[in-house]
């Protein structure tokens, strides 16, 4: 087979996730290419190797491939500029052919730079690199399809990386472009199918993580069907894994169990650490749900180990919280508290942490105190009070976001998947503590729900505003916009759902839950109530 044919075969192997075979084939071509003195083919080898190393998280290899491509490009650019006349005499290509080659592999190196920055969590550098790739307007019509592929693939990688860091809002403009590009493609080429399968699978995951379960399902099924047609076993299994997460979120444990067990063999065979960890996470959750605590601890430990191998701090912090549930159910509350402390250290060290992550962590620490109290009747009141100190401010802070979301469907999703579980826990601990005053105040707070206003107001940041943010979006107000859709237009109608003013149930007493509202602001920077005159709630 010709070198060009082997390069095409290596690309085919990479699409079907057989990276080891693709890498071996590419490396075997290097001596033949060097013998023929074909720098263009050598750069193609490095470009393909760089993509393989990026997929397999071998980031040193990506950097080496970028360096080799750019060293070669620098020589040819100097030749075009007339700076290396002696080297120019040895070039057998025309100036037009050299410019074509420089354009093509500059883009390929730019794609690798974008993907590498995204993989490292340097989202600002990834955005800048993607912009350079997108703004490359060199006029070579035969390279337009490859350029389109590189842009869409890079957008997918950047969006995935943002979601991995809980920066879902900043990923929305990228997902919009990816989905638009996928829907406009009419060819059935292998590269376009790869974009469809990869983009639709990862977008489906984004939809699951942001509560859009009904939107996730058709994309995941479409990606799975196309992957099956192509015989891409790993890609098919990854769609099953995402469907399993959707089933688990919807409370369908049997379906989640079936799908994750079907997905695991191919995922394990291809040794994708992130997906392997996510499988073990759901194996562990399923084991917890049936009371198999020893199995759960072992499975969750596998997930933690794989995430530590690829340095995923946010995922490690989450798995520590999940493993602490095993400690809670075993009655080992000291071990559970220690795991939460380790999770907090990881958040502290992570430069992109958000108040919402800390609120959820505090709420979970409150769960531990609550469980400890229920197991220790003699000291239950003291421990339940400590649980309330943690859970009530966290619940108020998280639930306050609900009052800022104008779109009803988005507000429902936030309430269902984010604030309701935490608020329910606050009610439970107040009730078990026997603090009827706090229970009645929480009931009054929740019953009032929010206030409408017809006053002119500034819209919250829309999706496009987050595309070029200089700092990560880390407020729940913006996070909630993921599900909210475009801003509402309005004139004199009721256009804004706002936070409650302070509520006063007793004319002789201060506004309700004042202390917990203060704690919510001090810990998370959230104003639970509006800065307005108190409402009187008595008849």
TrEMBL record:
Report which superkingdom the organism of origin falls in: Bacteria
Which Gene3D superfamilies does UniProt cross-reference here?
A: Tetratricopeptide repeat domain (1.25.40.10)
Q: What is this protein called?
A: Uncharacterized protein
Write down the species: Mycobacterium deserti
């Amino acid at each position: 087979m010709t070198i060009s044919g082997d390069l095409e075969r290596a690309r085919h192997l990479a699409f079907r996730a057989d990276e080891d075979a693709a890498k071996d084939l590419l490396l075997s071509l290097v001596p033949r290419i060097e013998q023929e003195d074909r720098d263009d083919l050598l750069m193609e080898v490095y470009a393909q190797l760089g993509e393989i190393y990026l997929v397999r998280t071998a980031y040193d290899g990506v950097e080496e491939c970028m360096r080799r491509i750019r060293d070669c490009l620098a020589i040819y650019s100097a030749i075009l500029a007339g700076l290396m006349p002696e080297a120019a005499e040895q070039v057998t290509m025309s100036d037009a052919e050299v410019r074509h080659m420089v354009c093509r592999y500059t883009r390929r190196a730019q794609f690798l730079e974008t993907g590498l920055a995204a993989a490292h969590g340097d989202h600002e550098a990834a955005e800048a690199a993607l912009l350079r790739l997108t703004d490359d307007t060199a006029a070579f019509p035969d390279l337009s399809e490859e350029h389109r592929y590189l842009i869409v693939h890079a957008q997918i990688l950047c969006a995935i990386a943002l979601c991995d860091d809980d920066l879902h809002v900043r990923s929305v403009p990228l997902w919009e472009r990816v989905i638009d590009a996928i829907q406009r493609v009419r060819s059935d080429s292998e590269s376009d199918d790869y974009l469809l399968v990869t983009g639709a699978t990862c977008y489906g995951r984004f939809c699951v993580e942001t509560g859009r379960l009904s939107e996730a399902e058709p994309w995941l099924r479409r990606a799975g069907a196309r992957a099956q047609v192509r015989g891409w076993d790993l890609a098919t299994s990854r769609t099953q894994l995402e469907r399993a997460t959707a089933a688990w979120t919807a409370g369908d444990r049997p379906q989640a169990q079936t799908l994750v067990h079907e997905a695991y063999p191919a995922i394990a065979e291809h040794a994708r650490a992130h997906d392997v960890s996510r499988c073990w996470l759901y194996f562990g959750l399923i084991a917890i749900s049936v009371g198999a605590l020893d199995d759960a601890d072992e499975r969750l430990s596998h997930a933690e180990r794989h995430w530590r191998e690829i340095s995923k701090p946010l995922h490690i912090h989450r798995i520590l919280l999940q493993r602490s549930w095993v400690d809670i159910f075993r009655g080992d509350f000291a071990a559970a508290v220690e795991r939460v402390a380790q999770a907090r250290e990881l958040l502290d060290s992570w430069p992109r942490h958000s108040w919402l992550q800390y609120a959820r962590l505090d709420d979970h620490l409150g769960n531990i105190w609550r469980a400890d109290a229920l197991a220790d009747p003699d000291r239950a009141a003291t421990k339940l009070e400590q649980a309330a100190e943690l859970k009530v401010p966290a619940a108020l802070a998280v639930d306050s976001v609900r009052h800022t979301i104008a779109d009803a469907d988005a507000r429902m999703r936030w309430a269902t998947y984010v604030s309701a579980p935490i608020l329910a826990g606050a009610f439970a601990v107040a009730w078990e503590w026997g603090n009827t005053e706090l229970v009645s105040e929480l009931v009054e707070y929740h019953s009032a729900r929010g206030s409408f206003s017809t006053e002119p107001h500034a819209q919250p940041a829309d999706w496009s505003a987050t595309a070029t943010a200089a700092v990560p979006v880390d407020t729940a107000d913006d996070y909630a916009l993921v599900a909210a859709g475009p801003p509402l237009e309005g004139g004199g109608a009721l256009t804004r759902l706002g936070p409650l003013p302070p509520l006063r149930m007793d004319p002789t007493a201060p506004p309700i839950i004042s202390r917990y509202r203060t704690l919510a602001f001090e810990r998370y920077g959230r104003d639970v109530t509006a800065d307005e005159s108190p409402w009187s709630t008595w008849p």
